[in-house]
Amino acid sequence: MVAIYNEFHSKGLNIIGVSLDKEKTNWTEAIAKDKLSWIHVSNLMQWKDPIAKQYGIESIPSTIILDANGKIVAKDLFGEELKSKISELLK
Prior knowledge:
Elements: H1 2-8, E1 16-19, H2 24-34, E2 39-42, H3 50-54, E3 64-66, E4 72-75, H4 79-89
Parallel strand pairs: 1-2
Antiparallel strand pairs: 3-4
């Protein structure tokens, strides 16, 4: 995700990381360790998190791509498939 973010952020890609952690320290330490520079949110409610429920998150990691209007255009893409879809959408 870091490489994809670095490649496409200047073209309009934004990432919001939603953590399903229970402990704030573990969550914030992981952000720092992995040098994740995008927006991060967490209610520290694990699987009871309202964001996870709203978007039907059933596994970690998960990806959801939203268009400029907030409409879901793809879910659970990873690697080259994710990169290709982002590239296509940002043309």
